[in-house]
Amino acid sequence: MKTKTNIRVKYLFLKRIGGAWGNEPVEENSVVCIRAADFDTDSITHIKHDLTKRSFEAGEVEKKQLLTGDLIIEKSGGGDNQPVGRVVRFDLNETALCSNFLECLRPNQELAIPSYLGYLLYSLWKRRVVTASIKQTTGIQNLDIADYFDNKIDLPDLAEQKKIVEFLDNEISFIDHLVKQKQIQLQLLVEKRQSLITKVVTRGLNPNVQLKDSGIEWLSQIPATWKIKRVKYLTTKVGSGVTPKGGATVYQKAGIPLLRSQNIQFNGLELEDVAFISEDIHESMGNSKVHSGDVLINITGASIGRCYFYSGELGEANVNQHVCILRPNDQVLTEYLNLLLSSNIGQSQVELHQVGGGREGLTFESIKSFIFPLPEMQEQKEILNYVNEFNEEMHMLEKSTQKSLDLLMERRSALITAAVTGQLEISL
Prior knowledge:
Elements: E1 4-8, E2 13-18, E3 30-34, E4 39-40, E5 45-46, E6 53-55, H1 58-64, E7 71-74, E8 76-77, E9 87-89, E10 96-98, E11 102-107, H2 114-126, E12 134-135, E13 141-143, H3 145-148, E14 152-156, H4 158-203, E15 211-213, E16 221-223, E17 227-230, E18 235-240, E19 256-259, E20 264-265, E21 268-269, E22 275-277, H5 279-284, E23 295-298, E24 307-309, E25 318-319, E26 323-328, H6 334-342, H7 344-352, H8 364-368, E27 371-374, H9 377-420
Parallel strand pairs: 3-10, 19-25
Antiparallel strand pairs: 1-14, 2-11, 3-6, 4-5, 7-9, 7-11, 8-13, 12-13, 15-16, 17-27, 18-26, 19-22, 20-21, 23-24, 23-26
């Protein structure tokens, strides 16, 4: 007969040790400081390489040093789609602390196996038990750990915990292998799409077409009838918006959509979190009004170079200073210009022209200087039709692969929950 004890989570830990951020690293006394950004959430562990190093007083290191078997919980941070409270097992063979947004949990190993507690707390977080103990007065979520750990769970004895851990380690390893294969498949589909797009915008659709030297070393040969054009000769406008006076405080729940960098994706416009501004502000930003047929490209930040076109689906719209408008002239189709920018030859020029003294950024002049091979309008249409048909096939494959990946992750989470809540009969 299995022995279980109904116990509050707090009794499963000997102590909680707050994290620290310390000072800028000094060669002789810097140590690893694990941050929430280092969490590999679903694997319940953290990355092992490229970890941040900070300097701490010797006494602080001695008092807060992480030990084998410790768990680390995120107590501040999170968001709507990923609430605070994530937990990972400490897994590093060197001196380390956790940051001040985290907390070390030292298991009572007379009651619980650390790996079992990792699975248990992952399940509680995944099932959103944690949300009842989250407090949020600003944009940052704060976890009331004392309240959270007042929850009761049914704890099996150590022998049963050992069986559960061995079972989960084995099953999760197999699922993770399948997940990795699906992720590789998705990446290969992306690479296949990029390869095809780059091929057709540099050589066209006819494999037997007569070629000529492009005159550009990195571009090599292009079809004999094509021309080399800079973006400034393909557009009537290259420019971005501005931050509305008052910034985010002037955003409304409805009004004129203000497209920001997070709205511009390679596969379309992401419109779930569009900001809105008033008619008056929109009119005051007349130079950055978006027209149907404009190509939009992100010019700052981590999403630099991401682009898509606007088809007028939102009616009147505007952009902020992180998004640049490219308004095509009569030499290039909107979708074709977008295809050029999103191709490998477009994205390589994005990387080449980034400026900003440490902050990634593109200037209008650098965008105007981008060089592309360009066919006549009719051939642009033929290439677009071909690419659109190809993309439909790729989208179906991606959708199917992503669905199977999602099902694997659901299975993974459900298995952990079933094992730690006693819903599975485990015998080894």
